[in-house]
Model the fold of this input.
Amino acid sequence: EVQLVESGGGLVQAGGSLRLSCVGSGFTFDEFAIGWFRQAFGKERELVSCINIDGSKYYSDSVKGRFTVSRDNAKNTVYLQMNSLKPEDTAVYYCAAHRSFRTLIFVGSGDYWGRGTQVTVSA
Done:
């Protein structure tokens, strides 16, 4: 069974940090680009960051300089280190896997999706 499981969300004050993890199983993890998306209440889902199989990375303008994505293929895990968090970062964060890095970025589509983890940033 294919699974992506996110963890690490929670409640944090503005300016604080969180590290999200996305663990994959049931597929060849190192053959997939992994993306982090978020969806705030009443808003559309948006791409936050993604990392390709060669380690190349993408960040949305809203998080550039504050968030860092990394992967550990030995652990089938992708991380999203989130620093200098702002109330507008509050959302459910999802990870998604796709064989195409470009599809994650330009289409926002994943072959596999996790169920999400809530991040709440208080002012």
